[in-house]
Amino acid sequence: MPRPIEALVHSGALARNLARARAGAPDAQVWAVVKANAYGHGIERAYDGLRGADGFALLDLAEAERIRALGWRGPVLLLEGCFEPRDLELCSRLNLWHAVHQERQIDWLAGHKTQHGHHVFLKMNSGMNRLGFAGAAYRSAWARLNALPQVEQITLMTHFSDADGPRGIAHQVAAFEAATADLPGERSLANSAGVLRHGGVRSDWVRAGILSYGSAPDFPEHDIAHWGLEPAMTLRSRVLATQQLAAGDTVGYGSSYTAAGPMRIGIVACGYADGYPRHAGTGSPVLVDGMRTATVGRVSMDMLAIDLTALPASGVDSIVTLWGHGPGGSMLPIDEVAQAAGTIGYELMCALAPRVPVTAVD
Ligand SMILES: *Cc1c(COP(=O)(O)O)cnc(C)c1O
Q1: Which CATH architecture has domain 233-361?
Q2: Is 253 assigned a catalytic role?
């Protein structure tokens, strides 16, 4: 029998979450953002649930090839554009749309021999200060692209730094509008938090990432139930062994947990080498047979310990839900586990380890 840990990718949840993005941006086209191997879900496994999108946005050329290999003939966008001139050949061959965020990418386009007019997303740095042209440089980049025979269409694009938080997007929207007011073409502004929290902003193409996978971008201010989202990934395993502890007994490496009185713990076949965060300390939430309890002691490479004291019916072979859907309609949002580990749902999904077998289910 294989080690009992496994992950599930829920196609129906992906589709319903994506529909939530559509409802939040009814006039927009929706990119399903599938970078980082569909946020750890696997592009091939997530494809069925996300094929209702208007296009797929990603970073990696190999991932773009995988989307085309699945039979997707619609739009595919490279969010960081090309990394070297020859990437443009793949863009021409596979009809990939690509972001342009720096001058040398325009130079490469100008030198590219192609029969296909390219669709580019011209990226503005409106305040995030990662990628893109700011202000006047944006306008001259637009003019340069517009004059190139290789370029057929230019969509205006920017990215929000604070759509999920108190600073909001107004300062970036103002910078964007100031530089683009008289430029023709479609706009692409909103990420998941932009769609959910700032539905009023004009964005002809929204870029829905995390919401499709069932994590709230603004947790803990709002949880997935608030936004009408469901987990698209379940990580589950089983109890391998139990231990009866007396007051003063300790658990795991470093003896970081000491039992205050008699207690029963379960040892679960899941550790940081499976992608469960080692930073999740004692008290991190977990479900056993669909009932909520908490971890105790340090997470080790292959195992972690949970408190079974209040759950006498649970023991060896009980189902442990690390995040996602549990038995009997129970559910543990990945955001709660992430919070216990001092991180965000995005990081946990993306870190699901290759050694965990994954199955796509409805
Ligand atoms: C990753 C990414 C997104 C998606 O962000 P979410 O917060 O996951 O919705 C949107 N736009 C760009 C440019 C990105 O890199």
Answers
A1: Beta Barrel (2.40)
A2: yes
Cα–Cα separations (whole angstroms), residue 44 to 54, 274, 356: 17, 20, 16
Return the H-helix or E-strand segment holding 99.
strand 97-100
CATH class of domain segment(s) 11-217: alpha beta
C-alpha–C-alpha distance, residues 99 and 120, integer Å: 6
Catalytic residue chosen out of the listed positions 35, 47, 123, 138? 35
Which residues lie closer than 8 Å to 140 by C-beta, 6 or more apart?
A: none
258: CA distance to ligand 1 center in Å? 42
Rounded distance, CA 205 to CA 199, Å?
12
Per-residue model confidence (pLDDT) at position 1: 76
312 CA from centroid of ligand 1 (Å): 44
Tell me the per-residue pLDDT of 270-289, one tens digit each, with 9 for 90 and over.
Answer: 999 999 999 999 999 999 99
| Helix-strand-coil split of the chain, %, nearest 5 | 30, 25, 45
Residue reference for tokens 């637009």: 142
pLDDT in tens, 158-200: 999 999 999 999 999 999 999 999 999 999 999 999 999 998 8
Nearest atom within ligand 1 for CA of residue 191: 9
Active site residue 213: no
Which segments of the chain belong to CATH 2.40.37.10?
233-361
Pairing of strands 358-361, 6-10: parallel
Start-end of CATH 3.20.20.10 domains in the chain:
11-217
pTM: 0.96
3-state secondary structure of 243: strand
